[in-house]
Amino acid sequence: MDYILKNLHFIVTHVPIALLIFSFVFDIIAMIMKKREWHSAGMLCLVVGALGAVAAVMTGPSPWRNPLVVPHEFYAKLTMLAAIVLAVIRVGLLIWKKKDAGRHPMYLVGSLAAVILVSYTGHLGGQMVHRPMNAPAMAPAGGAQGGQAPGGQGEPNGQVPGAQGAKGPAASPTTSSAPSNK
Q1: Which of 10, 83, 131, 179 lies deepest, with the highest CB count within 10 Å?
Q2: pLDDT (tens digit, 9 = 90+) per residue, 46-69?
């Protein structure tokens, strides 16, 4: 249970990513196919995606773990705000005016903006967790270079493939599984 609570952000973060994108896609399909049911699916995805965005922001990591957390957190809060505003407008218009905003071009522009925001936020989050295979790993706070964040890519011993350890090229052959370029 402790593992789930410590990693809750990584569990709930995919809810707004998937549902905000599908909300926009369903509304586009509804316009093309002229089917009202697809607008209903889009609205449901929007509401649940907005709630998921709130949960993802509330469970997000603290800034001391990685310098990329600050822009990631900024775009996450912006995405959450956009999703909440879109959901309130859409549900409000449906309840009080009996109009579905899913067809309106201005709503679709706002929905597309939310898709772009959630995509970029997810990209920044992915950069923190999944590092390129050929780039040196970022040093943990107060740690030595070559450290590997939990869940990141790289060798099991914390070395990035192809990278030379702290001892240089004379390091033991077990520290790197990358072939030598000599």
Answers
A1: 83
A2: 999 999 999 999 998 777 777 778
